[in-house]
Amino acid sequence: MSSPSRPVTVLDKPAVLAGLFEVWRDIDALVGELGDTQWQTATPLPGWNVHDVIAHVIGVESMLQGVATPEVDIDVSTLDHVRNDIGVMNERWVRSLRDLSGAELLETFRSTTAQRRQALSDLSNAQWNDVGFTPAGPDSYGRFMRVRVFDCWMHEHDIRDAIGAPASTGELVGPAGDLALDEMATSMGFVIGKRAGAPDGSRVSLELTGPLGRAINVAVDGRAKVVDDFGDDDPTSTIQLDGLLFTRLAGGRVSLAEHADAIKYGGDEAVGRRVVEHLNYVI
After folding, report:
1. Mean pLDDT throughout 153-159?
2. Where's the MDMPI C-terminal domain (predicted)?
3. What angle do CA 235, 196, 283 make, to 5 degrees?
4. Do 56 and 148 share a domain, yes or no?
């Protein structure tokens, strides 16, 4: 038997589910008392308001429960903010749920996530580690669920931005944020090596500060890859910024121009700046 072309990501099921269930609870609490006007507030995502973001989360979790994507009255692929087949699926769910009131949508969110909690809790370890489709390419179902933590966590902060309810330090600290950053870290080799074109021999350290603080280190040696550290070598470029700002830039939710003064560079500043300019990798 030939070995797989890429390693399978094996993740602790209770840890990932703790993060996923936490972010669902946080979203529930965040939108639970919204008024009608707040549900219609635009988010940083083009074409989507708060109602649409919750509808999107419902749609993905419904799909994972085996519910067919609904038909809608227009060809959503023609919309400016729909860029690929996944975007088409997302938009069909969003449009199909637009007639629900905020209260009705919240009840649908609660019933859908309750079904998902039960289904995920009932998964065997073999099913959890089984390799199949994920948005990051073929990998374990557990990896897919970590992607779901990332997606839902990002959308929590989309809603927070829209309604003017930024997360406190206590609200940022927890398994959901940690897992979201774990997932984002896996893409930094691609961002730094491919998108930013860091030259061979580069050692780039993203130094995230604040409640989401951590270091993400990428070494370029033929190809760029995330490493725990650089051994006895110093980084050739350092980039220091707040952890939440990192996630908003990487997700394309805020513009670099508005936050350029909040980022500090060390070492080869040209490479560091090029990395930050190409940080927006989320589709």
Report:
1. 98
2. 178-271
3. 120
4. yes
